[in-house]
Amino acid sequence: MKDLSKIAVLGFAVISLTACKENQNDSAEIMAENAQEEHHEEGHISLTQSQAEDAGLAYGTFAQEEIKVPIEANGSIELPPNNMASISSLLNGFVVKINFLEGDVVKKGQVLVELKDPAYVKMQQEYLSVYGRLNYLEQELERQQILNDADVGAKKNLQQAQSEFSAKKSELAVLKEQLNYAGISASAIEKGKIQNRVYLRAPFGGTVTSVSAHNGQKVMSGQEIMQVINREHMHLELQLFQKDIPKVKKGQKVQFTIPAFEESPVFEGEVSLVGRNLDMDSKTIRVHAHFEENDWLIPGLYTEARIMQDSKKTRVLPTSAIVSDKGTSYFFVKTETEGDEINYEKVAFEPGIKSDDYVQIKKYDKIQDTTAIVLNGAFTLKAVMNKSEGGHED
Ligand SMILES: [Zn+2]
Questions:
Q1: Distance between CA atoms of 120 and 118, rounded to whole angstroms?
Q2: How far is the centre of ligand 1, averaged over its atoms, from the C-alpha of 53 (Å)?
Q3: For residue 74, how far is its CA from the centre of ligand 1 (angstroms)?
């Protein structure tokens, strides 16, 4: 409608340079009075040559245009669970150092946080002592084996050595597992290197999205200290209504905005997957779309998206050629010129898809001359027609 009134203003600019919304109607009225001709047949109107010029009427024919009709789908920015990590320690400890701040980019394996606790050293000492004991038991087992082979040792001693050795071996395996879990290298301890810190490393490259501890703080095992996300696989998860399922497919362009942003820019993306499961409650399916990396786009943001359907060229008229009356759509054609008088006829049609600029013309009432369609000024003709027919405005 915005476009129509703009065109109407343009049309009347000649008559009144200061044309505004209210006196548009006045102007139409003046023109309507002047147009009180003998023609009063329904759907017909005539204007003089100069009236038509003043109204800025322009003629032409149908155009073939691609009408892109977006499909609305709302959703949010999501991150697959594997691309989000909560950095926490498996051991209690005191924070010694936090190496990155919110927003920092980290590489896989980089040390993010350093923790300290006397218990770490104790754990390693325990490992070392079990390790040493296991070595001794291994030698003892070998000795008993030799004695037994030579038939000089008691069978019982060999069995005991065997069972002590395997018990210690599994004890060591458990400790080793615990140390590895905590990020302490057992093989370093075996070489005599005991560390008094635990280093928490980045499980993958990404961005630090939150830091929830500070130096000197005691953190408990499992407590989140930092969050890292891999933004690479961030995507849009959209809910598509069932009626639109046949229209959406992989590769279609997606434009989306973030309503939470005061003046959200339009972001661009592309459909990468169309779900196959209908959610029975919402009657929607999920559409997965990828977009270009942008710092503003973070997981959890609500989005309003438009999926751009594939379009075919279709017969259209510009919206400035279209008026509607009592629910029926019309355009006007110039039928004949008698002297100074130009005759117009209102033609009903069935509108198809619409965009901001064009309306698809599906079926229309028969017309002789398809080259004399009023492309600009239909709104003026309608106003004049309504007045001269003593009709209404809607
Ligand atoms: Zn994805």
A1: 5
A2: 57
A3: 16
Q: 210: CA distance to ligand 1 center in Å? A: 23
pLDDT by 10s per residue, the chain, length 394: 444 444 443 333 333 333 333 444 444 444 545 544 444 467 788 888 888 888 888 889 998 888 777 899 999 999 888 889 999 998 899 999 999 999 999 999 999 999 999 999 999 999 999 999 999 999 999 999 998 888 776 788 899 999 999 999 999 999 999 888 888 889 899 898 998 899 999 999 999 999 999 999 999 999 999 999 988 888 999 999 999 998 899 999 999 999 999 989 999 999 999 999 999 999 999 999 999 888 888 889 999 999 988 777 889 999 999 998 888 999 999 888 888 888 889 899 999 888 888 899 988 888 877 888 999 888 888 888 887 765 444 4
Domains of the chain: which residue ranges?
34-66+313-389, 72-82+231-308, 89-223
Cα(87) to ligand 1 centroid in Å equals 23
* pTM of structure: 0.53
CATH number for domain 72-82+231-308, candidates 2.40.30.170, 2.60.40.10, 1.10.10.10, 1.25.40.10: 2.40.30.170
Give residues with Cβ within 8 angstroms of 52, minimum separation 6.
342
For residue 234, the CA-to-ligand 1 centroid distance in Å is 6
Please give the distance, rounded to the nearest whole angstrom, from the Cα atom of residue 78 to the centre of ligand 1: 9
Closest listed residue to residue 171, CA positions, set 133, 213, 116: 133
Q: How many CA atoms lie within 13 A of 161 on its CB side?
A: 20
Distance from Cα 286 to the centre of ligand 1, integer Å? 12
Residue 290 Cα to ligand 1 midpoint, Å, equals 6
| From the candidate CATH numbers 2.40.420, 2.60.40, 1.10.8, 3.30.1050, the one assigned to the domain spanning 34-66+313-389 | 2.40.420
What is the end-to-end Cα distance of the chain in Å, rounded? 12
Question: Could you tell me if 246 and 311 are in contact, meaning their C-beta atoms sit under 8 angstroms apart?
Answer: no
